[in-house]
Design goal:
six-stranded mixed sheet
Length: about 240
């Protein structure tokens, strides 16, 4: 079903191109939040509501009711069923209505990881794909991200802008992930968020490719609801 929906979306995207010209950019205020097992849903909701996102990628307890409570208190629509991407770590995307979503186990050389993935049709012939996963060690980063690149190449529509929430346990892991993704994807540290705050966060935000999505501003800081990175993203070509 997911591939069929994507196929229809791609046909629509390509079929309209010759007559409609380049669509206007689409503003996409975005937040990634990493809560802990002890984080109250109300605190996580407050952390989201403070930045009023259009899209929220939320990582927290592996409890569906917790995510439902966060969404209701923040006034955001739950757009995917919560998935579990690591032992005790759940994820859900809030805000926009997804046209397809999945939680899938991907193999890589030496192990496997779980990916939460959802596709969105933003209108104006714009597609958005959200991804969330966890990287445990610097040594795991390269083979895991190689497997991710293969998945994106085969299972994500080629015209989609990508936004990723990556859970990391330490600055060393985060640095490894950022360096490996840098050729194709930007992060909040290259859009105004202070490097120290990004390095201290247990969730990182990446987006790309640059021809499809860019960032106007970003911030990173810990909150009572968890580590939070917020960014004013824009889907479209940079002026």
């Amino acid at each position: 079903m997911r591939r069929l929906i994507w196929g229809v979306a791609i046909v629509g995207l390509v079929g309209c191109a010759p007559t409609m010209g380049e669509p206007r950019p689409t503003n996409l205020p975005t937040v990634v939040l990493r809560a802990t097992a002890e984080t109250p849903a109300s605190a996580a909701a407050d952390a989201l509501a403070e930045v009023n996102p259009r899209v929220a990628l939320v990582l927290g307890p592996a409890e569906p009711d917790w995510f439902d409570s966060v969404a209701a208190a923040a006034g955001l629509r739950p757009t995917t069923e919560p998935g579990i991407i690591d032992s005790g770590l759940g994820v859900a995307f809030l805000g926009l209505e997804a046209v397809g979503d999945t939680t899938i186990q991907l193999e890589y050389d030496g192990g496997s990881f779980t990916l939460h993935d959802a596709l969105y049709d933003l209108g104006r012939r714009r597609l958005l794909d959200l991804l969330a996963f966890r990287v445990e060690t610097p040594a795991q980063a390269r083979p895991l991200l190689t497997a991710l690149a293969e998945y994106v190449a085969t299972d994500v529509p080629p015209g989609a802008a990508l936004v990723m929430a990556v859970a990391v346990p330490s600055p060393a892991v985060g640095d490894s992930v950022a360096r490996l993704l840098a050729p194709m994807y930007d992060g909040a540290g290259r859009c105004g968020a202070t490097q120290d705050a990004v390095a201290a966060s247990e969730v990182l935000l990446f987006f790309g490719p640059g021809a499809r999505i860019y960032c106007r501003s970003a911030s990173a800081r810990p909150t009572p609801g968890g580590d939070r990175i917020a960014a004013e993203l824009v889907v479209g070509r940079r002026p």
